[in-house]
Amino acid sequence: MSEENNLQLHDQLCFALYAASAAVTRAYRPLLERIGLTYPQYLVMLVLWQADDVSVGRVARALSLPPHGLGPVLQRMASAGLIVRRNDPEDARVVRVALTERGRELERQAS
To answer: pLDDT of 45-93, one tens digit each?
Structure first.
């Protein structure tokens, strides 16, 4: 390989960002295990602690994710009793997400 090759892993900004993100996630893992959350669940909880009872679309936009990508995470959170999902009374196509009392209690534990 020539020295002019710009496809060196250590020269890629995308890899530096990936490695930094992975390091942050690893740093959070033991802290989140204490309160029973995964990192993706924690991000959803941060959104809901800031604005409870919102649409799945709003949560997805806040996290820069597609709404369908949240389905499995929200299902596990609902099964754990952290959130409830329900159809919006004004538009049944819209699913709303709200914290349960247990989900609100986690905010106190997390802070």
So the answer is: 999 999 999 999 999 999 999 999 999 999 999 999 999 999 999 999 9
The full 3-state SS of the chain, as one line of letters, equals CCCCCCCCHHHCHHHHHHHHHHHHHHHHHHHHHHHCCCHHHHHHHHHHHHCCCEEHHHHHHHCCCCHHHHHHHHHHHHHCCCEEEEECCCCCCCEEEEECHHHHHHHHHHC
Contacts 24+ apart (CB under 8 A), 64-70: 70/44
Residue 5: both structure tokens together: 């090759």
39-50 vs 71-79: helix crossing angle, rounded to 10: 80
Domains of the chain: 36-110 (1.10.10.10)
pTM of the entire predicted model: 0.86
